[in-house]
Design a protein that fits this description.
Blueprint: E1 22-32, E2 45-55, H1 72-84, H2 91-103, E3 108-117, E4 127-132
Antiparallel strand pairs: 1-2, 2-3, 3-4
Helix pairs in contact: 1-2
């Protein structure tokens, strides 16, 4: 025991070991000039963007050190920057831009990006696209 905490290393059975770890940015709300209909052009719309990054390294950052963890602020800032960087006709184009930004990062094992326009249909939570590196 150290610092009053019981030592648990080595007590987790192999069948319960961590096999997957992901970073999740869930339904980040952004404004984007997106859409190809005349009534959409030049009128920013609300978008909800989700990014899931599965990590190659599933181990816990050593000594609870923030410098060894993923920076959520970076993910949020990059998504916001891409959403506001230009005008998009299609959600697919924005989704791919976000996907490529994060797919190029070291340590990414798998990736999912989803976008949704929540204000299009009254009877639907949203309409959008999803792209992933897996089936």
């Amino acid at each position: 025991m150290t610092d009053g905490q019981p030592r648990l290393d080595g007590l987790v059975p192999d069948h319960l070991r961590v096999r997957s770890s992901r970073i999740l940015l869930d339904a980040l709300e952004v404004e984007a000039d997106i859409g190809f209909h005349d009534f959409e052009i030049g009128r920013p719309q609300r978008l909800l963007i989700t990014v899931e990054i599965w990590l190659e390294d599933v181990s816990l950052p050593a000594a609870d050190d923030p410098d060894q963890a993923w920076d959520y602020d970076y993910l949020r800032t990059e998504v916001r920057a891409l959403a506001s960087a230009r005008r998009y006709n299609l959600q697919e184009t924005l989704a791919h831009a976000i996907y490529h930004r994060f797919a190029a990062l070291r340590g990414v094992k798998a990736l999912r990006v989803a976008t949704a326009k929540p204000d299009i249909y009254e009877d639907a939570r949203g309409v959008g696209v999803e792209i992933t590196s897996f089936i």
